Amino acid sequence: MMHPEIRLRQAQEEDKHIIWDILQQAIARRKKDGSSQWQQGYPNLGTVETDIANGFGYVLTVDGVVAVYTALILNDEPAYSTIDGAWLSEGEFVVVHRVGVDERFAGQGMVKKLFDHIEDFTRSHKIQSIKVDTNFDNVPMLKILESKGYSYCGEVCLAGGIRKAYEKLIT
């Protein structure tokens, strides 16, 4: 069996509608799972457009097809400067926000693959850690972070809610 080619690349303007479709699927899934995350009009198409314009938007492609969307932001998450707890490090970091999987690729371990690619991205930029937060009730993401060796660091306040914050040191 051929292994699909999986790549992480910067999102382009022409990706924005597929990205928005993926995020709408994710918003619907969070709601179906009974989560309050992403149920207040964020993220939205404007969020995607801003991510792409700022160079934050990234897509994980499988044989050229967009499977996963995320925003990767270097050293810039004001909410992370105040944590009820403690980060593992004080240096440069990559922030992971807005992870969404196309339902055609759901259940195939795509988010775990995404995090592997984010580690490579972080290493290649010579950055020492990855920081990420998620809702208390986003069980799938909590499980992934645990399986990928992220350390629970405490709580941050983001988008009007308390989020669980995690960090992984990349050497």
Q: Can you characterise this structure?
A:
The protein is α+β, with helices and mostly antiparallel strands. The protein has a single domain, classed as Gcn5-related N-acetyltransferase (GNAT) (Aminopeptidase, 3-Layer(aba) Sandwich), CATH 3.40.630. The protein has 4 helices and 8 strands. The protein is globular and about 40 Å long. The chain starts with 5 loop residues before the first strand and ends with a strand.
Q: Uncertain segments of ≥5 residues (pLDDT<50)? A: none
* CATH homology-level superfamily: Gcn5-related N-acetyltransferase (GNAT)
Q: What's the level 1 CATH class? A: Alpha Beta
Anisotropy-based shape: globular
Order of helices and strands: EHHEEEEHEHEE
Rg value: 15 Å
Q: Give, in spatial order, the strands making up the sheet with the most strands.
A: 1-2-3-5-6-8-7-4
How would you summarize what this structure contains?
The chain is of the alpha+beta class. It contains four helices and eight strands; from the N terminus they run βααββββαβαββ.
List keywords for this structure.
171 residues; 30% helix; GNAT superfamily N-acetyltransferase; Aminopeptidase; globular; eight-stranded mixed sheet; single chain; Acyl_CoA_acyltransferase
Describe how the helices and strands are arranged.
Blueprint: E1 6-10, H1 16-32, H2 45-54, E2 57-62, E3 65-74, E4 84-85, E5 93-101, H3 110-124, E6 129-134, H4 139-147, E7 151-158, E8 161-169
Parallel strand pairs: 5-6
Antiparallel strand pairs: 1-2, 2-3, 3-5, 4-7, 6-8, 7-8
